[in-house]
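Cross-check.
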Amino acid sequence: MSIKAALIPATSPESSIHYPGWRVALAAFVGVMVSFAAIMPYTFSLFLEPLSKAFGWHREAISSAFGIAAMTVAVFSPGIGSLLDRFPPRRVIIPCVVVFAAAYMSLSLLTPHITQFYLTYFVLGIVGNGTAQLAYTRAVLTWFQQRRGLALALVLTGSGTGSIIIPLVAQHVIQNYGWRSAYVTLGCIALLGLPLTALLVRNRPATHSQSDDTFTTGSSVGTALRGAIFWILAVIIMLEAFGSNGLISHLAAMLTERGVSGESAAAALSVMGATGILGRLTTGFLLDRYFAPYVSMLMLGVASIGIFTLTTAATATTALIGTALMGYGLGSEADVVPYLIAPLLRPQAFCRALRPDLDRLRRRRSTGPVMVGRLYDRFGSYQPRFIFGLALTCVAGAALSLLLPRYPEESASPEAVPT
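Predicted model, tokenized:
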């Protein structure tokens, strides 16, 4: 009997809707929908103008909070991963969600002292990955082998679903009740995933045929870190994160500066989330059928076209088209990275070692928002050449996908997997 066959009971195959892993994936979907991944990136730009008017803070100074959160997420991801390896996922996720929600609510008490703003985003970064994909993906991966791509796509689609609804809710509250009430609302939204997480999210119970030494046929952590796959992925991640986060963190402010209404700017962010769902589902479907780096190149190419479209976007229609393409393409990294890494390592090592190393390399994402904010403060506007440069980083990342080598097992039949 092969390892893959041993992991999937004949009485409850992964293709069945009754397979218990799908309940875990559904709960993870809801949790990710109201997590750091859905709330922080997609609502940050909505507060740029209100905070600037309220306290006189410069765009670069406000954008630095985004960078602080992104840096802190990367730094603390290894710790979150270690906790997930030692304790059941609920014991990590639930405290992180409570702290995350409380921190967002505390932003309603901001004063002109920007240090408080920075400290709060520092806290958001500490617990961020404990509420988002890293925590939930770890549990879901223990349940799936044959349908891993689809399961990951379902979980990661949660952040896309949240990003459809949450920016619209936040913009509505800002416009009608003020930015302080909006921060309280976001904190309340963050708590919505707790019930299903408490009830359903858990790792697959270990059996005598599912040991740490036989779960995968992957190599050791050291071997994986010395291989080309890890470092090519690292550069792709840095390039994509620099370009996409640099634009997303300023998108609403950029569009309103060009004459697009606040409601339309929020709608553009929501459209990005909606097409992100389609992009992630497409990515999951393609990953189970085609060579993963080609899928990555295709999707990053679509994202690049979207960013190019936003270079001179000055109408709601153009903004919606650009964000639709951008959202559709950006789902690939979140699916492709864990898909490529998972075969290399046992699930325990996935969180403890290699995945946190990739998250540390994602620190470059923090420089994009700060750089765009600095350029805005220097030139007094979001000039098209800035956005064009961000698009080029995604193009470069797409091109580098061609350098990723093929795994030997991708060409093997299931019967060829060692027993």
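The CA atoms of residues 101 and 187 lie 4 Å apart. The radius of gyration is 21 Å. Passed to J.P. for a second look.
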